[in-house]
Amino acid sequence: MSIYTKNGDKGTTDLVHTKNVSKSDDRIQLEGTIDELICHIGVVKTMISEQDTIRFLEKIQGNLQIVISGVSDPYNREYKINDDKTELLEEEIDRLAGLFNCPKEPAVPGANRLSAEIDVTRAVARRAERVLATVSVKFGSDTGTKKYMNRLADYLYILARYMESEASGKAGKEIENARNEMPGEDTEKLWPQNGEVQKTAGESMSGKDFPGSSRNQEPASIDEAVIQAVLRRIGVPGRITLDIAKKLIEKIEQEALRRGKKAVIAVCGPDGNPIAVHVMDGAFLVSFDVALKKAYTSVAVKMSTMELSRLAQPGGTFYGVDKMDGGRIVIFGGGVPLKSGDTIIGGLGISGGTGEEDHSLAQYALSILPELLQCS
To answer: 34, 150, 156, 170: which is deepest, by most CB within 10 A?
Structure first.
């Protein structure tokens, strides 16, 4: 059976009792908007771990399918939304509202990815409700459906606020738990109080200052050990895995071939130790060591080697840094720190062309890294 019928090639479609209806017709617009809403709910389901909520959302999707059928066949009583379905929404709204203190002022979407996606879904639900009102004026509609669509948007609003509250509470608990798990004698050092500083941003991985660095720079308020503990608890990768490194290298190689470049690609962990190195056919022999050093440098100084090269010029903040650390620091483009959010999870070094060419490839890698991390 073919997926396409060609029946709608002229911009028309059929309803159960009406043929050749223009796709610009409000009823067709309503069907399409509700279909869009069903798909958005599907996205939300993939982001939620609570099985009861997922099952409830699946029931909503089923009810919306009934609404679509009712638009096409308005005289069929099987496609009516009864008050019981709306009452279930109200019960769930009341249950969620009893679990947290919902803000009285209108919420600004975007507190986290999940709640933002639910708010988008809510906005689509409101749009579907408006189109339904238009259809109701022109063609009539099921009263129960109008009540259900109105309450559905309310449910999605409270669900988004609940998920924000849950995320906020979880983050606070994880930080507190991580702090409590640290050795008691070191707690105050790991969590400076009243602005106390234990380690400044100007310090290197070895604890020594880079030339020209200042102890007046903004301090790191939380020790890396605490950060890693929190990241492990909430599921954020603390270091790049071999699997992700291999996938990243493969993508970089494909892009390098497209550009006509031959390079060595190295990935290291946040500690600077190599995770994977790939040598493309025809790459320069010297590029192997250079790529490793670029990856190491990017995590050692927490910036790209292109940026470091500008700061390492005579008179610059990091002038002479390339003479440190036994020659492992390099100051030409092609090395970048790899991050998950604001956390450095590794370093990338590319060597084979000019510094600008290698840096451009590294920037391409950064653009695709979030997708690879999300799919992992």
So the answer is: 156
Distance, in Å, from the CA atom of 230 to the CA atom of 287, rounded to the nearest integer, reads 37
CB 129 within 8 A of CB 150: yes
Q: How far apart are CA 118 and CA 42, in angstroms?
A: 11
Q: Which residues contact 91 (CB under 8 A, 6 or more apart)?
A: none
Supply the pLDDT for residue 215: 40
Q: What is the pTM of this model?
A: 0.50
Measured in degrees and rounded to the nearest 5, phi and psi for residue 266 equal -125, 140
Partners of 267 in beta bridges? 276, 348
Give 268: exposed, middle or buried? Use CB within 10 Å, 0-12, 13-18, 19+: buried
Report pLDDT for 231.
54
**Model pLDDT, residue 314:** 87
Mean pLDDT of 293-314: 93
